[in-house]
Write a structure and sequence with these properties.
Blueprint: E1 3-6, H1 13-20, E2 27-30, H2 38-41, E3 48-51, H3 59-66, E4 71-76, H4 79-88, H5 95-104, H6 113-132, E5 138-142, H7 146-157, H8 163-168
Parallel strand pairs: 1-3, 1-4, 2-3, 4-5
């Protein structure tokens, strides 16, 4: 069984995977196949947990390849915090400049980076919600309730390992 942590980025996906490293009956990784194209991009090993915000751009292919045979987790953080994090962290080749110039294209330069980041978060979260609406094994995971939600996630997937060590990862801020 494969598990996909769908998210906007800047919402705790690194921490989520650090916690998953304490699960012994699944492998886990963060953005592990970003350097691949075509069928290889989504060729994850069996019994694997993957967090990658770019999967939100591959939802059609993800559905075609895994359909309802996978577990889908929608990892969310308050949009305002996520967008503010993106707006502070702009760099060439980053997702927000790519969204502004490549997707929105004609957006005036005076539109703030925070507004673009908020729109990006809303768009990605809406796409994930639509994708997940007909999935039978799914979960909304709010970072603000991470420890409680991770215990539910643990039970949902039948995880084995060190739950307490996994929960402790949510006390550490990664990728700040």
């Amino acid at each position: 069984m494969n598990i996909f942590i769908l998210n906007t980025g800047r919402c705790g996906s690194t921490t989520f995977i650090k916690a998953c490293k304490h699960i012994t009956n699944f492998s886990s990784a963060h953005e592990s196949r970003c350097d691949l194209l075509g069928g290889e991009r989504l060729a994850y090993p069996d019994n694997h947990i993957e967090a990658d915000n770019r999967l939100s751009w591959f939802l059609g292919k993800l559905d075609k390849h895994y359909g309802d045979d996978a577990v889908y987790i929608h990892l969310k953080r308050n949009n305002s915090y996520t967008a503010a994090s993106y707006a502070k962290r702009l760099f060439p080749g980053g997702i927000i400049p790519a969204y502004r110039k490549g997707i929105l294209q004609q957006l005036p330069d005076d539109v703030s980076d925070l507004s673009v980041s908020l729109d990006y978060c809303d768009t990605v979260n809406s796409n994930i919600e639509l994708f997940m609406k007909d999935k039978t094994r799914k979960m909304d995971f709010k970072l603000e309730n991470a420890k409680e939600n991770f215990q539910k996630f643990w039970d949902l997937i039948g995880a084995e390992g060190e739950l307490e060590a996994a929960l402790a990862e949510f006390n550490i801020i990664y990728n700040a």
